[in-house]
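Weekly sync, protein design subgroup
Attendees: M.S., D.O., the rotation student, P.L. (late)

Item 1: inverse folding check
M.S. brought a backbone from last month's batch and wanted to see whether the design step gives back something sensible before we order anything. D.O. pointed out we never logged the input encoding, so this time it goes straight into the notes. Structure tokens as presented (332 positions):
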């Protein structure tokens, strides 16, 4: 089968398609014939040598995929049959023609969605769902500040926060990105290149501050995050796109707010946790992708690239141009 490959860490120019052995499903696993996979920041970090796959995971890039069940491994419990369309949360391996998946980490594709749209759901939407509900304990009426509001996780978090009865606020770097965020349900958006988002968030909340922050940026935002955090607020750190080093009185400022700083990742979590997360998301959120009306959830796709253009797809993501997900289409 063909798979995205790189021989040594570095730039996007190191990526190419390579013929590799097709994996065989193990006990309780399904072999998925991949139609599409979506890009995530983790793919770029792994390509650069900064985010190795967890022990036992495929070294091939790709944390989510959609396609059709091609083979059932021993011990599968009969929830899936050959030919079923499905989407999958992966620890790696999605950017290839076939990938093996524990059967509990497969989800049905919501009615009315294409395979390309479905590929944009698992990693981004399960991350957003986890951050809001399992880690952040979001409540109706909470004000939620979502950094990188036009990213895959950001566009999912806006919609899920809104569905939970919370009030989503976003940061982004262009007017176009803010307009998209507001279309998806953001109550307000702040261009971090043109204004101090912490002052804007405090003004929006009439000085009370935000109850929950979803932060994938890290060090450049720490002072502004603490400044606009409400008393007893929760600040969830799930990425370090801006850097990891902090200088200054973070602890004293956090303590004065009685704030919680919680770090969270999804890829490194164990199979039991991921099964629980997939089950909760399938029951609570997935039906809303198929329903018409104001509660409808929608994956946001920016661009679709054939997997042969993997270098261009990576460069586009690294330029921070995308609004929503970048999807890779695999050859049939």
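Designed sequence read out in the meeting:
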């Amino acid at each position: 089968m063909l798979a995205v490959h790189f021989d040594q860490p570095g730039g996007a120019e190191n990526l190419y398609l390579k013929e590799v052995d097709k994996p065989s499903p193990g006990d309780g696993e399904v072999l998925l014939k991949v139609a599409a996979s979506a890009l995530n920041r983790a793919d770029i970090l792994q390509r650069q040598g900064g985010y190795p796959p967890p022990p036992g995971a495929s070294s091939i890039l790709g944390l989510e995929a959609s396609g059709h069940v091609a083979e059932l491994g021993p011990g599968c419990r009969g929830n899936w049959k050959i030919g079923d369309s499905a989407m999958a949360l992966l620890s790696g391996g999605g950017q290839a023609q076939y990938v093996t998946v524990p059967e509990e980490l497969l989800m049905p594709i919501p009615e009315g969605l294409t395979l390309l749209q479905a590929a944009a759901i698992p990693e981004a939407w399960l991350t957003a769902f986890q951050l809001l509900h399992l880690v952040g304990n979001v409540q109706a009426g909470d004000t939620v500040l979502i950094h990188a509001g036009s990213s895959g996780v950001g566009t999912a978090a806006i919609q899920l926060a809104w569905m939970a009865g919370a009030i989503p606020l976003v940061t982004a770097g262009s007017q176009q990105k803010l307009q998209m965020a507001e279309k998806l349900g953001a109550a307000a958006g702040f261009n971090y290149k043109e204004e101090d988002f912490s002052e804007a968030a405090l003004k929006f909340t009439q000085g009370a501050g935000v109850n929950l922050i979803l932060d994938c940026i890290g060090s450049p935002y720490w002072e502004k995050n603490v400044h606009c955090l409400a008393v007893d607020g929760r600040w969830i750190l799930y990425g370090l796109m801006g850097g990891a080093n902090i200088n200054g009185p973070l602890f004293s400022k956090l303590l004065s707010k009685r704030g919680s700083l919680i770090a969270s990742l999804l890829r490194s979590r164990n199979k039991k946790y991921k099964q629980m997360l997939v089950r909760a998301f399938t029951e609570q959120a997935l039906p809303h992708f198929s329903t018409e009306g104001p509660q409808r959830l929608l994956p946001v796709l920016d661009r679709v690239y054939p997997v042969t253009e993997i270098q261009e797809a990576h460069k586009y993501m690294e330029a921070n141009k995308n609004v929503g997900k970048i999807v890779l289409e695999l050859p049939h």
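Discussion: Residues 2-121+268-329 form a domain with the Quinone Oxidoreductase; Chain A, domain 1 fold (CATH 3.90.180.10). The chain has a mean pLDDT of 96.
Action: P.L. to compare against the previous round before Friday.
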